[in-house]
Automatic annotation (TrEMBL):
Family of this protein: Belongs to the amidase family.
Pfam families: Amidase
Positions in coiled-coil regions: none
SUPFAM superfamilies (alphabetical): Amidase signature (AS) enzymes
Superkingdom of source: Bacteria
Domain Amidase: 24-311, 341-438
Gene3D superfamilies: Amidase signature (AS) domain (3.90.1300.10)
Protein name according to UniProt: Amidase
InterPro entries, alphabetized: Amidase (IPR000120), Amidase_dom (IPR023631), AS_sf (IPR036928)
Signal peptide: none
Amino acid sequence: MDLVFSSTIELAAAIRDRKISAVEALDAHLAQIDRHNEAVNAVVTLDREGARARAKKADEAQARGAALGPLHGVPFTLKDTHETLGMKTTVGFPPFADYVARKDSPVVLRLKAAGGVLVGKTNVATMLADWQSNNPLFGRTSSPWDLSRTAGGSSGGAAAALSTGMTPFEIGTDMQDSIRLPAAFCGVYGLKPTEHRVSLAGAFPGPAGAPRSVRLMSCLGPLARNVEDLALILGIIAGPDGSDTDLAPVPVEDMPKLDLKTLRIAFAPSFPGFPVANEISAAVESLAEQLKSAGATVEEAKLPTLDLHDDLTQGGALIGMMLEAAQREPPEEPTPVSRWFEALARRDRSILAWDRFFEGCDVLLCPVAMTTAFPHCEPGTPIKVDDREQSYWMLPAYGAVFNYSGHPALSMPCGHDRDGLPIGLQLVGRRWSESRLLGIARAIARLTSGFRRPPGY
């Protein structure tokens, strides 16, 4: 059994069946971190002693016949944004360099209650505000497929650690493609759930007593090396928690087994006015043809009649208003409340337009990002896409459309480009339908190469 590239489900089963111990699983992952982390710089905080103590307790609990959770003894890392008791949470921001929360966030509590063994934290963009994971505290994270390129952001450390066998799963945050883009760049799976599906409480450190500012468009979701693990972790972390009052009491259903012949799939090789590499749009078209041959009903998407560029602008404006409200000293001319309600009304129109779109299909297949992993650069530097320079700020466009609309979307690996870099494609579904979206992804994944281990790991 290759412990570091086993799935979360396989690891949990092996520990439960006493084929391996929790300590053995932990030691294998620590050895992988020691072997490869210096090059990719994915794991930035490591709690060896604490993790070993937790793994030993897991083995002791099993020996005395205690009830086992679905993650019993499974080691894991977390993006360096989740508040964790006794472990630093820095978001790559010097003022938070030594910040230690007084309690675990609800998501961390649930993972620990399920039996998971927290090992450490993974690298992020400073304050989660870029699509490269680089910050003054820990430096930059590189793609395991090409160290001269970025692993993406802001969940780049999470995706790189997962891709290289340092952790079997991760929990990212996604306000503008920040789970899906790095998942695509590193060749793993990443799910952005429906907005208000997973608690945001404790997902971002803030001054004690300050009101929570990020209430819209941002989501927490799992990254994994297969769809089954995504479903397992979503079932653990989703749902009301007594802290985040925005959460909807919508149950997470079991992931269904679906026949491709029953599915209606819309595909879009690109969105109007959005740049995309030819190899990525070709991958969309190729997979669409394979799905059609497999018996699915496949049609090129008739996208909603929305100005998607304006949606991105409006989404950015909403983010700006939330951040403005979080400032300790508001600007001299703060945004009037009427502007906030106008912005929400504008957003409602887009949400409803996409709701109507999904009345005619089960899923939308489209790009995750305009390019595969690009060379490290200063934020704002134009990015070459098929030898043409494109705006850096369009990097998350295909994903950010669905942060604005709130619909669930996942990134799945689908082959490699001419440079050997992973291509990730995006599947988008109806709101509150993550389980069905995951079932669709599992059915489609049989036609793709799925996760592939990067060379040398």
